Amino acid sequence: MERPVTLHVDGTARKLSVDTRTTLLDALREQLAVTASKKGCDHGQCGACTVLLDGRRVLACLVLAVTCDRSEVTTADGLGGSGSPHPVQRALLEHDGLQCGYCTPGQACSAVGMLDEAKAGWPSAVTEDPRQNVELTEDEIRERMSGNLCRCGAYPNIVAALREAIR
Amino acid sequence: MIPFEYRRAEDTDSAVAAVEEAPRAVFLAGGTNLVDHLKLGITAPEELVDVTALPLDTIESTPDGGLRIGATVRNSDLAASPPVRERYRALSLALLSGASAQLRNRATTGGNLLQRTRCPYFQEVTTPCNKRSPGTGCSALHGHNKNHAVLGASDSCVATHPSDMAVAMAALDGTVHVRSSRDERTIPVTELHRLPGEQPHRDTVLERGELITAVDLPPLPEGTYTAYRKVRERASYAFALVSVAAVLRVANGVIDDVRLAFGGLAHKPWRAGTAEERLRGAIPEEATFREAAEAELSVARPLADNAFKIPLARNTLGAVLRDLTTEVLR
């Protein structure tokens, strides 16, 4: 059952017709050829498909495209402005925060979402007192990024990169 | 995945009518569990009725000083909301210990309560499972059952309920508001989920077409402290082996109010009424905590792989009460 939707992907309005069964991830990759968001597990366990949906990090593999009409979708392609990388992406490069790179676009989107959440004062499971605001220590970064797996195990460098991006 | 219709409900009446009228329609909220089930073939609805546009996304104080949490409030918003952080710390902690940030940004209050077990046999459609396909048998009963229930299970089903949020809400005496086309009713969180018995395909007492609209939390008297502790195999992004939500108030050196719930042990959040009874009026000390936990767990029946959960639950309950007592007496 096809439905028309408009997605604002990385700053561009894209009109398309989606089968109601299509996930946001498949709509991006297969219909719009926006391949920054990666298909890892396709079951919400790995984080490779992370995008910002209306400014919040979500898993594109568990969102139906038909529910996203008129939404803003930001993939790793659209994080930086006018062709230049976002500070998080720059830091990941400088710190070697990747090996194969498959999880990296999801890591980058997730990290940008994390920074906004921390700025808004959201606590995490390791925040000593959730009534207080947070500082993004190494423990906080590890907890807040736990939804993004890296099978190459580049975690130490990812954490180092994000520590720098925060500064 | 079989084709399905999609409808975005504009108001609560039309949402419940839509699901009631179509025998194979279901509500869709955050989709973090349902969309996965569509892919896995665990469920094959003919219509999804999206409830995320309904005006059920607010967190409001109630006249009695409690809190009303809308059914479509996202888990991340709920965990971060000031009244929850300040007054219902156990709930904030429980939410933050569940899933990942991306999932919490989508998952809703109502959907979290109605998420289904992560029993691997339930999720693998080629294996027998009474919860997924009634009458086919339980693969976990004599299979890999390390993560399964030790309390209230039956030979039909030994699955556990996966929610952290619901465990905190059970200890906090939450009440679920439910709406159908005929009426509205309220159900204590502790009575929303069922024990499996002979009908493990029914997770809750909800009838077809009933929609959760909100959860109310009663106010906590001055001097009440709450906590949530989750024990799991890795530090983050994993389901509980055992979890404990606790509410404690100490007055004149004795326990004046105590409410406890276990997660990871049963087909529902397990309110530990026996332990509470032993603790009420007692002096808060280590030996009493242990004795209360043992009394509660005396009815536990371990499976081949999960006897470890019983001492783990006892010790976790003791640790939570010890920490809370320290906090209360500080």
TrEMBL record, chain A:
Top-level division of the source organism's lineage: Bacteria
Membrane-spanning ranges: none
PROSITE patterns recorded: 2FE2S_FER_1, 2FE2S_FER_2
Swiss-Prot/TrEMBL keywords: 2Fe-2S, Iron, Iron-sulfur, Metal-binding, Oxidoreductase
Pfam family name, one: Fer2
Pathway(s) the chain acts in: Alkaloid degradation; nicotine degradation
Single GO MF annotation: 2 iron, 2 sulfur cluster binding
Protein name: Xanthine dehydrogenase YagT iron-sulfur-binding subunit
From TrEMBL, chain B:
Protein name as catalogued: Xanthine dehydrogenase YagS FAD-binding subunit
Top-rank EC class of the record's enzyme: oxidoreductase
Top-level division of the source organism's lineage: Bacteria
Keywords annotated in UniProt: Oxidoreductase
Entry-linked Pfam families: CO_deh_flav_C, FAD_binding_5
Source organism of the structure: Actinopolyspora biskrensis
Residues covered by the FAD-binding PCMH-type domain: 1-222
EC number: 1.17.1.4
Gene Ontology MF, one: FAD binding
